[in-house]
Amino acid sequence: MSWETIARQDGRLTAGTRSSKLLLGLTAVSILLAAYIYPVVGSDPITTAQFGGFVKGWLTTLLPFVGVLLGYNAVVSERESGAIRLALSMPHSRRDVLLGKFCSRAGLLTAALVGALVAAGALVVYPLGELVLGRFLLFVLLTVVFGAVWCGLGLATSLVVATRRRALVLAAALVFLFVIVWDVVATTLRAGLSAAGIVGDSLPGPVQFLIGLEPGHVFGRVVTGLVQGGSVDGPWYLNEWIALLLLALWSVGPLGLAYAVFARRDVA
Known about the structure:
Blueprint: H1 2-15, H2 18-41, H3 48-71, H4 76-81, H5 83-89, H6 94-125, H7 133-160, H8 164-195, H9 205-211, H10 215-227, H11 240-264
C-alpha cells in the first residue's frame, strides 16, 4: 500500500538522524533509570503494576517533548523543500502521507518504549520484585498510546503550517501549555476560589473534568485506575473508563482536525 511505502522510507530516514537517536535514547535511559531507582525508594509491594504509578510522572513530562520533536517537521520540511509536491504527484494521496508519517514516527517511539519497558520490568522483578503480567502489559500499551498522542500532536502542527519555524513554535506552545502552564493555572484557580470562599478543598466536578482533559492527566487517571488498581476520586465522569475514552480521542482527534486543514490547503 502507498502509505506503507512512505512509512518505510520515512522510518529509515528518521531513525538515521542524530536528533532522533538522541530523543529515543533519552526516553529509554530515563525509563531504565526509573526502574533502577523504584525498587530502592518504592514502598512494598514492589511490583511491575506499581512501577507504572511510579514512572507515570516521568513519562507525562518526557514524552510530550520527545513526541512533538519527532513529529513537528514530518510534513512541513518536505513542504518547504518542495518534496511534498513530488510525493503527491506519485500514486500517494494526502491521507497516505499522513498515515505514513504518523506510523513511522510513532512506530520509532513505540519500539523505544516497548524495548525500554521490557528491560525496566526485568529490573523491577529481579531480585525481589513481582511480575504482574496482565497489568504490566496494559501499562506498556497505554504508554505506547500516550506517546502516539504526542507524536500525533507534533505531526498535527506540521500539517497546519507552512514553515518549520512556525511548526516548532506551535509544537513548543502545546508542550508549554499542557506540561508547564496547565497545572499552575489549575492550582492558582483552586487557591483563588478557596480563598474567596467559593469552593472548599476541591473544585467542582465539572471544573475538575475540564482541567483533567489535559493528556497527561488523562493518562495518569487511566494508569491509576486500570494498572495500579487504585480508586479515582470524584464523579463518574472522572473515572478511569472515561479517561480511557478521552485518551483514545486525543490519539485521533487532533490529527483528524489537522488533516481536514491540510487536505484543503495548497502545498505549493
